[in-house]
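**Polypeptide and fold**
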Amino acid sequence: MSEVIIKTEKLSKSFSVGGKQQHVIKNLDLEIYKGDFTVIMGSSGAGKSTLLYALSGMDKPTLGKITYAGEEITGLNDDRLAIFRRKHCGFVFQQIHLVDSMSIMDNAISAGMLTGQKQKDLKKKALGLFERVGISEDMTRKFPAQLSGGEAQRGAMVRALINDPDVVFADEPTGALNSAGVKAVLDVLTDINNSGQTVLMVTHDVKSARRADRIIYLKDGGVTGELRLGKYVSEDKERHEKIRKFLEEMGW
């Protein structure tokens, strides 16, 4: 059995909308395993992003418990949660959120400096990561607006990886990209997962979901099914059909 890295117990999250409580996550029990590439799917409004933000410590649940590597994070204050995220988590979003006035190299280094690393060491590490995601050293001097969507997203991924996170949280990271950009980003996520890092991704895209070891289907704030696929192999022609049938059973 794989090691559990994130666990929820009776997790709930609600928001006040027009004076009424809207329950987005409801009494959810879930385990995320170390080294897995886990994808969360479900229809719009199912609570996918809300769950991702709760699991990463970016948002606090209304009720319930979240443990990370056996340590409860639910009761941490904002400062301690920020330290937790810097140490353990990397984030990739659909909206890239790079600082427009900084080069992509400076974007990456600034994230690392928050953990007290030296700038010289960070630049060396960042150059290795940029090479890994297919961005040349010359390109690292460019600003986000000078890059294609796929290039900027890969730059954002370097920023997410600069602190060697245990878990990379990705919220629709390919949603705004063309097909070439989608493949480049998914290749990087697959590569880092194959190197041992845990990936947890929300997506609506079936082709992106093919990269998962495990798909969790969320409906009305709860898990209604899951599919185990094993490690991604590009030549696996049956993978897409397995996912299609699973989603059909889930009412996708």
Q: What stands out?
A: The chain has a mean pLDDT of 91. The longest helix spans residues 179-194. The CA atoms of residues 117 and 163 lie 9 Å apart.
